[in-house]
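Meet my pick.
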Amino acid sequence: MGKLFSGSAKTKESNAAYGQIHDTFTPAIDKGVSSFLDMGKLLGGDSSGFDAYKKATGFDALLENGSRGITGNQAAAGLLRSGGTGKALSNYGNMMQNQYANTYMDSLNQQAGYGLNAASLLGKTATTTTKKSSKPGLGAVLGKGLSAFAGGM
């Protein structure tokens, strides 16, 4: 009865580009999910992803070069076997670890954000769009007729 007086119900129409959008953005969504999970792993104590990141970005070579610089300077000053040398090496290693950890987490966070944005875009295109049908219902027809009748009086 409601359709009789109010016109046709909303109709649904599919987005023809959804398949291509899905195929294009699914890898970004997957990478975002993976990055989010990797953040959780690192914060939970699993450093395997972080260790792979350090290896891929040359962390060990930078750490070794910095350590050589410290030991070389300390040796030149005659302090190679001093506690200060050990402390300087420890501080340098900690600084490098922290710097790389921050960069790693920032990269994961950025990739997770890209995945979230891609998922949002896909979600907006995945659902169907709605539009009103152009057929007026009996109520609209009667309303127009009564308006015309009242205007003619």
Q: What stands out?
A: The mean pLDDT is 81. The chain has one domain: 17-127.
